[in-house]
């Protein structure tokens, strides 16, 4: 009933372990993403079918689920990892011939589980579903969430918690850490096989260059810069940008300790384990550059057989990072201000605004929303005397260079009204784990149209109560 492919298994055996998902006594679907099923044209109308298929109950011998081997730099330290609680059920090919991994998370132990139980909690899986779908509707490349199901068992964390699995969909789960694994645990032939496979699957247009692996490096740097620029646009903090959580496809994934910033501050961190602010909001561009350097190192032997040439080529690519970043970042920030042009002479306008937002402790989302719609309930941002000089300068630039209607539209497309604010997410998830899905469903409905500002939805626009963020902490994959 479900024709899946397994192109990944054409790689050498050290890249994966064939493994079946755990069986659960009473699995029960909690959320099913009907829109995504339709987009992927998965011909399943009956949710029970999908769930039982994913849990392996209806396996007809044609499926070969597998866990992927990878390594990664976690907070700067190299570690051998791998899917410790995830299994790729197979690759789904859409009607338009696009290939997607369908992966089950929380599905039991694998060879790579180390000390972990291979399981996941309902709260963490619902959180991933909610935030990843919100990112999708914010027009940001991301893994998608297909379903969350309770497994019928409790999992031991600090306390016993309701267990669950999540099915997620991605163009590919190959990550920087997969290349680091190939470099450290494999031969040059293994690395070449991974590079060739990845290019063929994700970037076939780069296959025929003088150095396809260098082409791959450049491509990944481009898509990752675009991705992190988008995160900065909406105030998203990934929280754990370890190289094993950075996809080669340029999709956001691994929603563990992620969060959305309320009050603007580049040092904002919510993750309980990020004690040094390595993955703080404003440090994300530095960290993606650092991660790209790790990918470059891993690829060296296949960039060029002559080590000094390979190093020179890779270094020249990484050296381009700042120039590309600055241009793309400011281009995006100027779009948030309604200005559509590459205009280095206007970068100061962005810098001055951010300095002002920092000084006045302004809400990130709502400041841009206020500029877009002239006023926003609960925010007197535009009225204050401190803000007026900047506002006057911005307005005079807009009048000179842009049609009013066009710049308003640009701002509406780039400045969301609704992001999954931490206090709303927590409130909705806490209710959902007790069986009440109302708040979660309401929140997801609002987040499906994040750019459609509606004054009456003020509850979803207001920042959290004072003090909330001071105590708010997020946690890695629980
Ligand atoms: P993360 O930081 O969430 O990407 O996880 C880092 C590594 O820990 C990955 O290799 C995961 O597969 C593994 N991991 C996380 N939670 C568990 C768990 N409960 N059981 C086994 N492995 C886990
Ligand atoms: Mg991970």
Helix content: 40-55%
Strand content: 5-15%
Strand count, sense and closure of the main sheet? 6 strands, antiparallel
- Please, how many helices? 17
Report, as a whole number of angstroms, the end-to-end distance.
Answer: 33 Å
Shape: globular
Bound compounds, please?
Answer: adenosine monophosphate, magnesium ion
In the predicted model, the low-confidence regions spanning at least 5 consecutive residues are none
Category from helices, strands and their pairing:
alpha+beta
Number of strands: 12
What does the average pLDDT come to? 94
Which features characterize this protein?
478 residues, 6-stranded antiparallel beta sheet, two-stranded antiparallel sheet, binds adenosine monophosphate, binds magnesium ion
Structural commentary:
- The chain is built from 17 helices and 12 strands.
- It is of the alpha+beta class.
- It has a domain at 7-170.
- The strands form 4 sheets. Strands 2, 6, 7, 8, 9 and 10 form a 6-stranded antiparallel beta sheet that branches.
- Helix 6 (212-234) packs antiparallel against helix 7, helix 6 packs parallel to helix 9 and helix 7 (284-303) runs antiparallel to helix 8.
- The structure holds adenosine monophosphate (AMP) and magnesium ion.
- Magnesium ion binds next to loops.
